[in-house]
Amino acid sequence: MAVYLKSAAEIEVMRQANQIVARTLAEVRQAAKPGVTTLELDELAEEGIRKAGAKPAFKGYQGSGPYPFPATLCTSLNEEVVHGIPSNQRKLKAGDILSVDCGVLYDRFYGDSAVTIPIGTVSPVAERLMQVTQEALELAIQQARPGNRLSDIGAAIQRHVEGAGFSVVRDFVGHGIGRALHEEPQVPHYRSAGHNERLRPGLVIAIEPMINEGTWQVEAAADGWTQVTRDRKLSAHFEHSVAIGGDGPIVLSKLAQGELS
Please, which residues have CB within 8 angstroms of residue 185's CB and are 6 or more apart in sequence? Predict the structure, then answer.
């Protein structure tokens, strides 16, 4: 499939979509406390998204799961890597880490971002895992500039993560984003000789390293959507939607200056 480069006007609309995502994630972060269910967070997110004039991008999405995804957020706890389904049976407790992935459709364009949230005081390894994952994302974003290759993004992530003693999930990768939630190109978070395309101004990609405490291998849970680490050790996930600008990366899903994070 062809890579779709966006105009400056289209990137501005995508910035607006991603700002809705960023505000939603900030609200979820503030609400994610011990005793709160993941379904309550999902309901909070959907209400805010619709009030902003957008639609949840994940709800009803027919991806790799056995049925359309039933929720606004992906809420993945501890050993869950991605695509966790919100539930009124899943109450947060102190020591958990919660990955929250959120996408919206606004004015025909998509926004997509994710954070991992500590619930109360978490273990030193959990704290370190989240820190390294976030650092890896920032290092990857620095590579998202004209003339570099897609493989430079994955190499930066893998180098940092494995140097810290963690592992990079291979089964799920980043992606182009625009009028579709998932567009070409795929964006691996590890060194991949098959992804050497040059980055060009107008390309918008979602970079979303999923980093595991132990093995990089994952498997599907019983619900068919949720992916868990094979060794049941912790996983963290951070994501930004990033436009390749003429002078370097433009992070669309960071909160606008002056807004609470």
Answer: 3, 150, 175, 176, 195, 197, 205
